[in-house]
Design brief:
The protein is an alpha+beta fold. 29% of the residues lie in helices and 31% in strands.
Amino acid sequence: MNDNGQIHKESMAYFERLLPGPIERVWDFLTSSVHLGKWLLEGTIEPRVGGAVNLGDGHIRGVVTQWQPPRRLTYTWNVFSPGETESAYPESYLTLELEPRGERVLLTLSHRPIRLAEFEGRTMMGWHTFLTRLVALAEGREPEPREVLMDRHRVLYGVEKFTP
């Protein structure tokens, strides 16, 4: 034990993507229930600080901590198994930031902290997959199936295939 304060480094997933603008269109992809299920998970994000986040039929639940349209969205990210009222996993934060770049928009995604080392590769694999689908939709293309992308990105990040 040590009475002095200590610095602890956190693990974080970080991605950047350039998407076709305008910025309001990209914001809509990130926040509208109409678009969420096409690239991320079906669900809703209440458009306000303190708003509820419910994705994947309650698999991901959280609370909006920053709502600054059309530039910044942050919410807590809590993973729940079916029937759970309390998550068995550590809470984390997802931040999505948008910045105009001419006719395109830079999306920066950060997800932190990743407190369990075994989730680092899975988190990277998941976000790479979701963002690949988002880019396709924003560019007017049909995204590849999530399972196909997961298999491709699983190899990239060294994640074993999950078999229930």
